[in-house]
Amino acid sequence: MNLNDTTADVGGNLGEVRRRIAAACARCGRDPREVRLLAVSKTYSAAAVRAAAECGQRLFGENRVQEAAMKIPQCPSSLEWHLIGHLQSNKAATAARLFDWVHSVDSAKLLRMLEGHAAALGKRLNVLLEVNVSGEISKSGAPPEAVPELLGMASDLRNVEIRGLMTVPPIAEDPEEARPHFRRLRELRDAWAAEWGVPLEELSMGMTHDMEVAVEEGATFVRVGTGIFGARVYPGQGTP
Ligand SMILES: *Cc1c(COP(=O)(O)O)cnc(C)c1O
């Protein structure tokens, strides 16, 4: 696996991202402390993570379990790790061990497996249910109609806590195109929280190009990769 060191000014970029979040909060009257920044370090090396950690960044997001398993042991133990990519059930045990949060739970089977693994580890695991609000076929995430079954399981979970919802809207050039999907996630959250009596306080939504829109629509986690570390280079793709 080829992981890249970053050539970006990580400290400067983190400052800029935090300014963008603060400006969006100011526009809609939110407290910037309600919005936590996940630095998405996928494809980037442990050295890149350490550079961000030295600038005060503590929360990191990874989308692949195997890559994270290589990287996390080489990073300071004070960091908090969030899995944001699709999780296959055969990697659930490793994911439960490595991560503090899993943002991408989309089935009853995965929820049960994570509960079993977290219990075996004597660990508390925070999960978000990933919802496919757009109905786009290619997207991961549970369709909204499948989510009530998962919420119904919450009271049987001991080591896993369902903390909220996550979504990834369809790729669009104009960040405004993401707004209806973010808003829909918040509305679903409000309805489900009332119906099932679970707080679902966290909304994980927004990436580098649409984080302001996500903050305006209620995001509590924004997941920012390229805005911090620079454009990603995937193996075999050459430099952008
Ligand atoms: C890669 C990724 C991000 C970060 O995307 P950027 O455009 O680099 O900010 C956010 N969320 C998920 C689920 C991702 O896979």
Q: What key attributes describe this structure?
A:
single chain, globular, TIM Barrel, eight-stranded parallel sheet, binds pyridoxal-5'-phosphate, 240 residues, alpha/beta
Strand content range: 15-25%
What's the gyration radius in Å?
A: 17 Å
The fold-level CATH name is TIM Barrel
CATH-defined superfamily: Alanine racemase
What is the global morphology? globular
Helix content: 25-40%
In the sheet with the most strands, the strands line up as 7-6-5-4-3-2-1-8
Task: Write out the distinct hetero groups bound to the structure.
Answer: pyridoxal-5'-phosphate
Give the arrangement of secondary structure elements:
Blueprint: H1 10-28, E1 36-40, H2 46-54, E2 59-62, H3 65-71, E3 80-83, H4 92-98, E4 101-105, H5 108-121, E5 125-130, H6 147-152, E6 160-166, H7 179-196, E7 202-204, H8 211-216, E8 221-224, H9 226-229
Parallel strand pairs: 1-2, 1-8, 2-3, 3-4, 4-5, 5-6, 6-7
Helix pairs in contact: 4-5
Bound molecules: pyridoxal-5'-phosphate.
